Amino acid sequence: MKNDILYDIAQKMDEMSKGQKRIASYILDHYDKAAFMTASKLGAIVGVSESTVVRFAFELGYDGYPKLQKQLQEMIRNRLTAVQRIEVASEQLGSEEILDKVLNLDIEKIRRTLEETSREDFNSAVQSIVKARTIYIIGSRSAATLASFISFYFNLIFEDVKLVQTTSASEMFEQILRINEEDIIIGISFPRYSKKTMKALNYAHTKRAKVIAITDSASSPLVKEADYFLQARSEMASFVDSLVAPLSLINALIMAVGLQKREELKQTFDHLEQIWDEYDVYEKVENQNEKS
């Protein structure tokens, strides 16, 4: 608890001014809402000036209110219930211009992902994937869609790819039972973090397999098990997980791996094109220019 911002606020309340105590009390009682308020809005709600809110942040040891706000957001990402997320989304987005606001938030997540993802970890992850005997991929709940996406394309590139099903813990461990140092596992999870994904990565780590964590923050519990940490921002505080930036990072990972295996991939797709034509897999669309 000692690194918890709420713990720090509670410990220092006796030393605060009357106005700062009002800010502290509001944050302790409504941290899920305060984390997404501007300094002026927080001040207006508790009845103090914006400058008092800024000084409050400095008193806690932060270089301004945005740093305190970021720390609050980091702290609550794995605490919010679905109901709290809906309430926060209503505060953030309102009821108008939803399309513009959501798309702009997603654009910002992609920008931050581009800035923050380690190129060294990304390139090392690509090389480890290419060299692996077996590639295991795991993601549960909403992250299962991302795991399935990677699995689909990696199955076109590699011979031995296993999408780990997480319907039960016992079945999950049966699927990764033989993982070892020749293998790699890709774990994907975002707040609230999946315990099953965590347990799978921990087991793989003990078996000396390489571990790639695709997650949102260095404070994510997946990172402590990982050899390579690929950071993708997913911060929308709502009941819907924003997976735009993670999917973009995954696209880059698939493309980088595909370029490493391009000769084999060419042969695979040549073969697939023949199968698709022979078995009439795709609808043939006539060229409008040819018709005219």
Automatic annotation (TrEMBL):
Residues 3-79 form the HTH rpiR-type domain. Keywords: DNA-binding, Transcription, Transcription regulation. InterPro entries: Homeodomain-like_sf, HTH_RpiR, RpiR-like, RpiR-like_SIS, SIS_dom, SIS_dom_sf, WH-like_DNA-bd_sf. Coiled coil: none annotated. Signal peptide: none annotated. It comes from the Bacteria. One of its GO terms (biological process) is carbohydrate derivative metabolic process. One of its GO terms (molecular function) is DNA-binding transcription factor activity. Residues 125-264 form the SIS domain. This is MurR/RpiR family transcriptional regulator.
